[in-house]
Write a structure and sequence with these properties.
This protein is α+β, with helices and mostly antiparallel strands. The protein contains three helices and six strands, in the order ααββαββββ. The longest helix has 19 residues. The protein starts with a helix and ends with a strand.
């Protein structure tokens, strides 16, 4: 089992955001609140607080990218075989509408073949409290055997 999934199962969803920020401090800038983490799925919330706002009072574009990379990375980590490693190698994003309020970040990898090495696109969608999609990302993950 992934060490990050083991940590999630051990500390629970409520404490997991703080635990991840201890491991990778930059993710703490969005104060993530985790809803679910399991193979092929990660869901978290980016709370809309002043610290993530831009000059017009919406959630800053880079906070959205940060949430997307966090969800995609954790989902990848808990989905790949233990003999694999991963690293993000690219990100494409689309800002669909102003991001206001607490935002739900969803990485759903149900259609990804996690057993295949190589570059793998991971999609992430971010929704506002009304359920409208405000942001899309495709994060390309390089998956490789740890022995390579």
């Amino acid at each position: 089992m992934s060490q990050l999934l083991d940590l999630y199962n051990h500390v629970g969803a409520e404490a997991y955001g703080r635990a991840i920020a201890d491991i990778a401090p930059y993710f703490g800038t969005i104060s993530p609140r985790f809803i679910a983490l399991r193979p092929s799925y990660c869901e978290l919330v980016i709370p809309h607080v002043r610290a993530v706002e831009n000059h017009i009072g919406t959630v800053h574009a880079i906070a959205l990218c940060n949430g997307a990379e966090l969800a995609a990375g954790l989902m990848t980590d808990v989905s790949i075989p233990e003999s694999f490693r991963w690293i993000p190698v690219g990100m494409s994003v689309r800002y669909l509408k102003k991001a206001r309020g607490d935002l739900r970040v969803v990485a759903d990898g149900a259609n990804i073949d996690w057993s295949r090495a190589g570059e793998t696109p991971v999609t992430v969608a971010i929704f506002d409290k009304e359920g409208s999609r405000v942001f899309d990302a495709e994060i390309r993950m390089a998956l490789a055997s740890k022995s390579d």
